[in-house]
Amino acid sequence: GAAKFVVVVAIFLLTFYVISQVFEIKMDANLGHIFARSALDAAARSTKPPRYKCGISKACPEKHFAFKMASGAANVVGPKICVEDNVLMSGVKNNVGRGINVALVNGKTGETLDTKFFDMWGGDVAPFIEFLKSIPDGTIVFMGTYDDGATKLNEEARKLIADLGSTSITNLGFRDNWVFCGGKGIKTKSPFEQHIKNNKDTNKYEGWPEVVEMEGCIPQKQD
């Protein structure tokens, strides 16, 4: 009986030892896997490029507003205007339309003041002119075309937009793509403007040129 007891105890201890060794090996393997995965995740995070406001390519300096915008694509996808990581106008927000799309931003605070679109194909230019005249001094003005933004534009409307700093507005034609950022009361021409002509030989889409995009950093208005 004593011999059997010793054998049973020995078998139990041996079994316990084997199980503990296997468990320890599995624990080591699992810990090794966890640490390896953590190291890979950390490496991935360190190599992932940083994201800046509105997805622009580099960070803006202090006291500047980051922006990114795009014109419409043909008559299918509307324009998009983003300021300080806040999408002001887009097809997703359902606040864009055919013609010229306009977003107004306070030049000191970056606060959105208004967003509107004016149909320059089948609409009336008079409300657009009144809107342009009512923009307060110190306002940052973003504009982007969708479908056609020029047919109903007259000399008065073009002059008011030129006063905001645009140089391309005098040449904006039927179905041209155009994005612009200027300001009410600006003393110089704006550096933020992109314009591509509607040309059947170079158009990306049938009847429309390719989308134009623009990004940049706008200095905050100082008192």
Automatic annotation (TrEMBL):
Residues 98-185 form the ILEI/PANDER domain. Coiled coil: none annotated. Belongs to the FAM3 family. One of its GO terms (cellular component) is extracellular region. InterPro entries: FAM3, ILEI/PANDER_dom, ILEI_FAM3C. The gene is Fam3c. It comes from Caloenas nicobarica. This is FAM3C protein. It is found in: Secreted. Keywords: Disulfide bond, Lectin, Secreted, Signal.
